[in-house]
UniProtKB/TrEMBL annotation:
Cellular localisation: Cell membrane; Cytoplasm
Domain of life: Bacteria
Function: Involved in targeting and insertion of nascent membrane proteins into the cytoplasmic membrane. Acts as a receptor for the complex formed by the signal recognition particle (SRP) and the ribosome-nascent chain (RNC).
HAMAP family: FtsY (MF_00920)
PROSITE patterns: SRP54 (PS00300)
Topology with respect to the bilayer: Peripheral membrane protein
Quaternary context: Part of the signal recognition particle protein translocation system, which is composed of SRP and FtsY.
UniProt name for this protein: Signal recognition particle receptor FtsY
Organism: Imperialibacter roseus
SUPFAM superfamilies from the UniProt entry: Domain of the SRP/SRP receptor G-proteins, P-loop containing nucleoside triphosphate hydrolases
Binding site for GTP: 122-129, 204-208, 268-271
EC number assigned by the record: 3.6.5.4
Amino acid sequence: MALFGFMSKDKKESLDKGLEKTKENFFSKLGKAVAGKSTVDIDVLDELEEVLVSSDVGIETTVKIIDRVEARVAKDKYLGTSELNVILREEIAGLLSENNTEDIEDFELPKDKKPYVILVVGVNGVGKTTTIGKLSHQFKQKGYKVILGAADTFRAAAVDQIKLWGERVGVPVVEHGMNTDPASVAFDAVKKGVDEQADLVIIDTAGRLHTKVNLMNELSKIKKVIQKFIPDAPHEVMLVLDGSTGQNAFIQAQEFTKATDVTSLAITKLDGTAKGGVVIGISDQFKIPVKYIGVGEKMEELQVFNKMAFVESFFTRN
């Protein structure tokens, strides 16, 4: 089906299954909102607003969606509640397609940047290291040579975790152990990437430093040492967010975008939550590409985010 572009049947099934809880929650609330109503009136719109906000779409994005639905109702006076599902799907798809975020191809790297360097940021507990491990696996499966840098040196388990992922997926990890200089790890990881003609270097960074200033300084230092080898690196600063935290993910996105130049987002743990609407809100509000979403435990269940496929799945009952 053209809508899904490169999405295979297995990936579509994983996406549908991963969004199950979100969809059950959304349709249950939507059903109650329109119960006993035949037309989309002001009461239904008020109820719909509540449904979207409580599905963690976010207030700003919800207001945009309600305004669009209201405009449709004003234009066609006879829209009934039975058509609301279709209208919502069309308006949310339209909203996301207007963002300056383009769907990317399936785990592909730019041919003119080698090694391509990704700096990964995010608070502890959001699935940052797991996302790095799964990304490494996916890119390795596509034939790319991947190197990892264990620069989250302030947390006891972080270096060990990334080493385990390296062993599990069969990619080398550059590490200096705990309480060492993160910039030094990043330096050696990128040097190794250049020397060994790797395609991709992924660098894990500290999940939490005491203040935003510390975080900014640390990331700035890492960027400077990387640029000794590759002047335009890092090519991507990826923020990992836990989708199951709903509105807290918005707050983390706000904080990190203030502290550093975030260029892409990965939203994890969508399979264990009813808060999948957060993807719609974050994609709309931050105008930063949501590149990857986690819809399950398996390696293959970290997927490239396709806006249209996501909206289609969100509005399709299993």
